[in-house]
Specification:
With 266 residues, the chain is of the alpha+beta class. Helices cover 43% and strands 15% of the residues. It contains ten helices and nine strands. The strands form three sheets. A four-stranded antiparallel sheet has the order 4-3-6-5, with helices on one face. The chain has a three-stranded antiparallel sheet with strand order 8-7-9. The chain has a two-stranded antiparallel ribbon with strand order 1-2. It is elongated, with a radius of gyration of 35 Å.
Length: 266
């Protein structure tokens, strides 16, 4: 394709010396770009619509290749104020490729000083090595660290601690999928025959609240001051109530289940 011919025809047929008064959006364009020796005289300036202006710079990039024209083409497509013509995705892709090629060419020609970036990279590597040090890991993983709120004790059916860590480390040790383990412990408080607790001295963790169970109709106290996860099997076998229902009532999502309601103990 003869890009120069299309460029010249567009400038000749669509360029206007005076800004049209039809209320449309127009931009001023240098016929000979300033980076190529053009000036700001009236003879070198015309008015084009936003779309025409973009096409002209696209053609100039095709004519002159990577360099200042690539930067100008990229600037036309990446208008940060959002008040210019919005190009199609194909034009944006071409502009980004042009800008990348221009930077690569400058780097190969030695026009870009990499000393600053090299020092920044060295500083980043130092920070990264610090985060991987033993002292840093001990500081962020201690019980007084905010990270410790993700640490739990995991119990078997006999109440013995079988694992200390996070949901992820528990799943990895017993070769379970993390998703079901997380969802079950998070929303039910147990997974198969294992349960989770927080008996460590941890300022970022709270003990499960004591709750009371009442008859929803009469308001009679049925069971007093117990923890839902500790009485899980009893509630399930005796009343057919699951811990998830107890949690929903305490959060106010529902009023009762199986004729019973629950409230935190005073």
């Amino acid at each position: 394709m003869n890009y120069q011919k299309h460029h010249d025809l567009l400038i000749k047929k669509r360029g206007k010396e005076e800004k049209p008064s039809d209320g449309g959006y127009y931009e001023r364009h240098h016929i000979l770009p300033r980076s190529l020796g053009g000036d700001d005289s009236d003879d070198n300036l015309i008015y084009l619509t936003g779309r025409e202006h973009l096409i002209v710079h696209w053609l100039l990039y095709k004519i002159h290749g990577i360099g200042p024209m690539a930067d100008a083409f990229y600037a036309m497509c990446m208008d940060k104020y959002g008040n210019r013509y919005k190009p199609v995705s194909r034009a944006i892709e071409a502009a980004m490729r042009a800008k990348t090629d221009a930077h690569s060419n400058r780097w190969l020609n030695g026009e870009i000083d990499l000393s600053k970036y090299t020092s920044d990279l060295a500083n980043y590597s130092g920070l990264q090595s610090h985060s991987q040090s033993k002292e840093y890991r001990e500081r962020v993983s201690g019980l007084t660290s905010p990270v410790s709120k993700f640490l739990f004790d995991f119990y078997n059916e006999k109440g013995e601690i079988v694992h200390e860590g996070t949901y992820a480390t528990f799943a990895k040790e017993f070769n379970f999928k993390y998703g079901p383990v997380y969802q079950s412990f998070k929303h039910k408080g147990f997974y198969k025959e294992w349960s989770v607790g927080n008996k460590r001295s941890n300022p970022y963790r709270t003990e499960a609240p004591l709750i009371d169970m009442f008859d929803a109709k009469t308001g009679e106290l049925v069971l007093a001051k117990f923890k839902a996860h500790e009485q899980r099997e009893y509630l399930k076998d005796t009343y057919g109530i699951f811990p998830t229902k107890v949690s929903s009532i305490l959060k106010g999502k529902q009023r009762q289940t199986k004729g019973y309601t629950f409230r935190k103990s005073v």
